[in-house]
Design brief:
Length: about 80
């Protein structure tokens, strides 16, 4: 089982690490703080994404026109 803890409170982390050591739990510490530059890079990658091929959904504007066209409604 894997447990991931994220906290900015160093005091709480120290207590958790101490307890984990007493319980003979393996600890792997990774400092993966997302900084503003990283967030901006991710945002730019998402905004600048370009598909490599054509859409598998077909022509969206044609579908919308078909959906919105007038239909003959039976009068009961």
């Amino acid at each position: 089982m894997e447990l991931i803890l994220k906290s900015n409170n160093q005091e709480s982390l120290a207590k958790i690490i101490t307890l984990a050591k007493k319980l003979n739990v393996v600890i792997e510490r990774k400092d993966s703080d997302l900084q503003d530059t990283t967030k901006d890079e991710i945002k730019n990658r998402i905004l600048n994404f370009k598909a490599k091929g054509t859409s598998s959904f077909g022509d969206a504007s044609r579908w919308e026109k078909d959906q919105r066209e007038d239909r003959h409604l039976p009068i009961i």
